[in-house]
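Researcher: Next entry in the queue.
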Amino acid sequence: MFTYTELLEKINQKIANTQYGQNPAELYDPITYMMSLGGKRLRPVLTLMGCNLFKEDVNHALPAALAIEVFHNFTLVHDDIMDNAPLRRGQETVYKKWNMPIAILSGDMMMIKAIDFLAETPGNTFSVLLKAFNKAAAEVCEGQQIDMNFETSKDVTHEAYIEMISLKTAVLLGASLQIGAIIGEASEQDAQHLYDFGKNIGIAFQIQDDILDSFGQTAQVGKMIGGDIAANKKTLLLIELLASVHKDDKKELETLLQASADIKIPGVLNLYKKYQIQEFAEAQKEQYLTLAFQHLQAVSVQPERKILLEKTAKDLMERMS
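Model: Structure for this entry, 321 residues:
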């Protein structure tokens, strides 16, 4: 089996050797630029891992892995427009470097190219792969819209939040593994277990991200602590606090949510500590991690072949160390 580094090198080489188109340059140059910005390449590596669980040769999965990475970057191009974000991975976002109409159109072309790359998969599995790919792609869009709806929604439940992060973030991790497994000729049951493993890891990872935003260290997390609090973002932590806060503290919380960041962040953090919100979120995270590893354990390959996936998942959860 390949190591993570070896699989990552295969992906990076595939991206470096891929041409997306030339004319008109304004359409294709932004795609090349976006794909050159790097990133963890986690999703395409997971596709190769899903294949490698069942087959030694992962080259047949490279077109699908590229398709998933191009699709992921397409969502980032459009997300940056919706978020009015000037930077992506330390560089200008596509709409800032060019303009918004070009970013929209280039993003659309990335989606088309992703399907083209998926279609390059050898064999007769394209219809099955396309169904899995399009399901995940549609769900990512649904999750993004639900997240935007949360900005103006007064009451967001735990269930609604988990649904949102499942769709926006987790399903693509699951589909990346599932698509790789299909190419590796896994059984339908094993491919589904890998999908569920990836999806539940994704949910746990997002909850971890929420926890770190409030309780991590700036140097570890790489961003300002309390950014979600400052933005009144409806994370699992804030949703639980709103559901748990007693009458006397509720007025204080309502006042804090209208205050400036320098007052809001320490005030909300104090309430988080008072109501043991971190402990609640940690317990939720562990539930999804446990479920994820149960699905991985159920995959019918030798345990030693699953070690890399186990390590990758644990490394994701320990990224603050």
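Model: The beta strands are 87-88, 91-92.
Researcher: Noted, moving on.
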